[in-house]
# Entry
Amino acid sequence: MDGLKAWYDREGDLLEVVFEDTPAVMEEINDDMFERRTTDGRVVGFMVMNFSKHDREKLMLPLTVTVKAG
# Structure
């Protein structure tokens, strides 16, 4: 694992967070919200489109994160 990577594209209004840099596909889980999943179903990141239009106080991502010590 290379560590958490996060970036925001202001022009595209897109927030993306990657927990693990591995081959994966995006799956929409809610309006403007996507999980980045591996073929075995592990969530290795997420993306929020139209980020500035979401109420950040109420933005909820249905994710469970497990942290392992390196």
The first strand starts at residue 5 and ends at 9. The beta strands are 5-9, 14-18, 25-30, 33-37, 43-49. Residues 13 and 50 are 5 Å apart (CA to CA).
